[in-house]
Amino acid sequence: MGLAAALGATGALCAQTVPDQPNTASALDIPENLQIFGKVDPNVRKPTAIVNDTVITGTDVDQRAALLIAANNLKLSAEDRDRLRLQVLRNLIDETLQIQEAKTAQVTITQSEIDQSYARIARGFGRTPAQMSTYLREAGSSDRSLRRQIEGELAWQRFLQRRVEPLVNVGEEEVKGILDRLQASKGTEEYHLKEIYLSATPDRAEQVYANARRMIEQIQKGEAPFEYLARQYSESSTRAVGGDLDWVRLNTLPESLSAAAQQMQVGQIAGPVETPGGMSILYLVDKRQVLTSDSRDARLQLKQLTIRFPAGTTQAQATTRAAAFAKATQAINGCGEVNRVAGTIDAEVVDSDAVVVRDLPPALQEILLKLQIGQATPPFGSPEQGVRSLVLCGREDPQNGGLPNPEQVQAQMEQARVNLRAQQMLRDLRRDAIVEYR
């Protein structure tokens, strides 16, 4: 489960009605006039479990949920918090199964590896490992919870590298076929989409529609990032990557999703959209033309200046310091002055030598494409994560769009097959596990 907060999104295209969906439960041979024997009370099953003799406690669930809430700056209702805890329990069960399976293959993750990953995550939050541990405790989580998550991700990744990747093969003819299709589709549009898919039988369509609308509202209000909701609630295999469908052409999508995507602007939300067996929420990250050069494919050399606000900083103090930061960064004349200016305003400096324009938020893309070398962007950021400015130090414009090399295509195809096999293996592990709920 990712820790970074996701891009915000604006706008919505809302479906007016939800037609009946095919009944996918018919294969189960469920009687039409069924009778329930016994009572079902969701409050009886507490969010703790024993997974093949490994105990998941209520504290484990609470701390992992707190980690997610803090990392994504979520604002959840009591009802949404209950849903989150149930989803976290399911995630912890999967994580436990992955760690157990990795151990059967003699996969060992050392404490040093966990420490290195923990320190890297802490740096992403602008903290030292010790400060990160304090931050987690104050948020109601713990470094133990984050380290457990790190162990699970590393163990499963290494298990796949040992047991799955060596068995995945992509032939030269398959690669050639992909390249031929790319060449044939030169100039056509591709869309970078993210999706939250929710299954819905006819009897649940109204409830699922309401849930989808609530998710859209959370995204638009900044209460929850799209990726977070995709990881928690999407029933598609892309949930593991925050719902990311990557670059797709519209003729590969169901007709309803294709029609919705064509009406969207970059950064916009669409949904709920009726899809086979359910409904989807779409987020358009970007769009481009196949094998056609685009200014947003330029690679930039950047210097980022950041100031952070200590705990207890008042709004007036933050405003004053941000104003001084803006004045100083706008007076920068060339990248050679960045470190000197940073020293005068107590700002951190980070160098990035190969940032692709389209990988940045849309608002920053437009600003950076208009900057001259040596100029700085206006300040941006938040009180929680600090205020930043980017200084443009160099730019490599894209050449005419060309085919990717065969090695790149082969690597992408192999990774897709590894991911598919990983989902199948996790499904089998769930099926064979002994899980006792308490």
From TrEMBL:
UniProt-recorded name of the protein: Parvulin-like PPIase
Occurrences of domain PpiC (ranges): 188-286
TM stretches of this protein: none
UniProt entry keywords in alphabetical sequence: Chaperone, Isomerase, Periplasm, Rotamase, Signal
Organism encoding this protein: Sphingomonas aracearum
Pfam families (alphabetical): Rotamase (PF00639), SurA_N (PF09312)
GO molecular function, one term: peptidyl-prolyl cis-trans isomerase activity
Alphabetical list of InterPro entries matching this protein: OMP_Chaperone_SurA, PPIase_dom_sf, PPIase_PpiC, SurA_N, Trigger_fact/SurA_dom_sf
